[in-house]
């Protein structure tokens, strides 16, 4: 018995040793080392003499990684994809092939996953490509990869990706914010979309969802907007670009300069020409902007755009709520602006509006920007299905003045309302009027009411 | 030269050669680490079917956890989201990182199971009876510390599994009246699981709880030793008289009278005591049944140690510890489940938050602590203890059934879903 026990003890100790060795062997033979060996052999073929050949082959295996500190990302893709930045690897087999058409987006600076998706931390193929359980964004397929441009290029047109611009436009004009929150603004009937692109495993799902919400998500309250295939694709692209990562500030730290085109767009939008002139063309209230980038440093102009009064106490210039990239774009535009360009901006300006017209226009902007159009329609026609609500659909707003006073309508917008039921015993209708008082100021709400009243079709006149 | 080496060796071990009986005794007596063993042990106590060595296995698992835990601390930052990234680094770039983490994970689950089984063994053999009542109480605390260690460790990977298990787990605690909310806030360092909770759980997990665990373990072992080692196997009990745990404790002893100190007395002989000590003394007949701890007890313990280690290693080689997505407070999994050993509690809570979340667990712990004091029956024979055996068995089975239901039969919205039915998620 005692002898037997001693033998068992030694056998078990030996087994423990074997198990440790097995674990060490397992740890010491990861697949990336095989890839690196194959790559070295590929490189050694090109070497002319035996000494350099041997030197190449003797390179010790190591993990390559790109750290993007501001983004909490670590991309180890280049541990296996060793030739991405090496043009001589143009015709090499994957995973060693050179990545053409990168422009300024060099992997050693940007990593790979911000465009491609996948799991940058991983060092085996399956996990790295993210096609494993519990990784929210696997590699994007060819069809959707261009959507990633929008993750950094937030404002203005992205060259080569018209879908993003169109998707953004649809999102802001079709009233998506009525139900969905984006960056804190919007309703709460549907899911928050702020990081939709970071958590969506299958882009195909999104696209099918835009074409027919109820087919992929049973019982969804989202109405079918009868989008075309192109529109669904554009919206999918826009959704995929929403990741809630601090991309803008990260890449502005890389000293990327946003386009002058976007700056010009802002210049027109913010109506700068109504105070400033460029080369003598425009208003004379504020300084002429021709050559301003030569007279002042970029930091000075940036500060001026953030807080004019800080630079010139008593300055009449309003504070614009401009993002870092927007301010950079304006600077880029100012450095290239000419008097001819100012002339063309001036000639496109419509006549000045009366204060009433301004209030109605502001109301219209609010009505579409905060998503009212999502349910009530771009022409106030209503008609989105809402089962078991009275009438079975969201009411048209073209006749509100018949039933309500302006103050009553303002109260409904402020406090929200659940629609009266068609059948009291039936299910709760999926759509309801949210309360807007925490999102919109009283002035904004008044302007929306002004806008509604300007659109009323006078039923009484028909008598 | 050889003399010098021999002298150095002698100065270290200081005992006679192990070939002599004196040497075997001194191996234990003269070594601080082995001193927890007596020089000689009863043969019957070494039988595997007497204890299944469950206490030893639990202790060995704790040793594995200490070792692997200290190694893991070298790779871990208790701050979100770095904590999760460190898990990924362990998985993908640390040499033998997955093996290390797997060992820690499986040993932790194993310890929860073994400490529970050990408690059952001690209960069914009646080993909590006089004079070991208080050691049972210490044992119950050790069970609670084991659960706390496991629970605090559960949060550290900072993935969805961890985040929501701890959210659910701490919510159960907040149902306690008056102090529940504050208690939760104290534990989490805030109103919800966040950075504050992670650092607090980390400190509890790597410093406070292990220290408390070691202290309680020392007292637990010391008392077992002082109470005469393991209790007598129940198959050796012949009648009620013999049923007492301690061999030496006299049934009826007149209380000792303390002698009044004499005014003239200037010294005392403190080692001179009257009466028998409460701990074990061995009669000459019993002496016959004993053997030296070395090698008989040690070789058995060594076998159990290596069996435990190899089992955990084998599991760690083939089974990977789970790691889900990064913790996301905005995305609640449905259903969100507590760690498996608390799923019985969560199941109770789903029926009544106050009764299931506060009253039931409090009563359970109190009942466990009070068992040795409520059960006045001196007999350890199974035939004499039918009622309490039934009660305890019902307690154990009810716990297991609740855990199994909570783990395998609860689907989205905590609806009753058998595990063989696949539920299609609503969102994707």
Query: How is the CATH topology of the domain at 42-246 and 287-333 in chain B named?
Result: Cytochrome Bc1 Complex, Chain C
Strand tally of chain B:
2
Strand order of the largest sheet of chain B: 1-2
Which second-level CATH architecture of the largest domain in chain A applies?
Answer: Orthogonal Bundle
Which band does the percent of strand residues of chain B land in? under 5%
Classified by CATH, the class of the domain at 42-246 and 287-333 in chain B is Mainly Alpha
Percent of residues in helices of chain A: 40-55%
Number of helical stretches of at least 4 residues of chain B: 15
Residue windows where pLDDT falls under 50 for at least 5 positions of chain B: 242-253
The profile of the biggest β sheet of chain B is: 2 strands, antiparallel
Structural class of chain A: mainly alpha
Element-by-element helix/strand order of chain A: HHHEEHHHHEEHHHHHHEEHHHHHHHHHH
Helix content of chain B: 55-70%
Task: Provide the β-strand percentage band of chain A.
Answer: under 5%
Tell me the Rg of chain A in angstroms.
30 Å
* Multimeric status of the protein: heterodimer
Q: What is the 3D shape of chain B?
A: globular
List keywords for this structure.
heterodimer, A: 463 residues, mainly alpha, Cytochrome Bc1 Complex, Chain D, domain 2, 4 domains, two-stranded antiparallel ribbon, two-stranded antiparallel sheet, globular, B: 428 residues, Cytochrome Bc1 Complex, Chain C, 15 helices
Report on the structure:
The complex is a heterodimer of chains A (463) and B (428). Chain A is mainly alpha-helical and 463 residues long. Chain A folds into 4 domains: 33-128, no CATH class; 145-249, Cytochrome Bc1 Complex, Chain D, domain 2; 257-348, Cytochrome Bc1 Complex, Chain D, domain 2, CATH 1.10.760; 355-458, Cytochrome c-like domain (Cytochrome Bc1 Complex, Chain D, domain 2, Orthogonal Bundle), CATH 1.10.760. Chain A is 45% helix and 3% strand. Chain A has helices at residues 2-28, 31-46, 50-57, 107-110, 113-116, 125-128, 162-173, 196-199, 203-211, 213-216, 229-240, 247-252, 260-269, 292-295, 298-306, 308-311, 324-336, 339-348, 355-369, 372-376, 400-403, 406-415, 442-455; strands at 66-68, 73-75, 181-182, 185-186, 277-278, 281-282. Chain A has a two-stranded antiparallel sheet with strand order 1-2. A two-stranded antiparallel sheet of chain A has the order 3-4. A two-stranded antiparallel ribbon of chain A has the order 5-6. In chain A, strand 5 (277-278) and strand 6 (281-282) form a beta hairpin. In chain A, helix 7 (162-173) packs across helix 11. The longest helix of chain A is centred in the N-terminal third of the chain and has 27 residues, at 2-28. Chain B is mostly helical. Classes of the chains: A mainly alpha (463), B mainly alpha (428). The A-B interface holds A 2, 5-6, 8-9, 12-13, 15-16, 19-20, 22-24, 26-28, 63, 72, 74, 76, 119, 121-124, 127, 133-136, 192, 199, 201-202, 205, 217-219 and B 81, 85, 88-89, 91-93, 95-99, 159-160, 295-296, 299-300, 302-303, 306-307, 309-310, 313-314, 316-317, 323-325, 328, 330-331, 426-428.
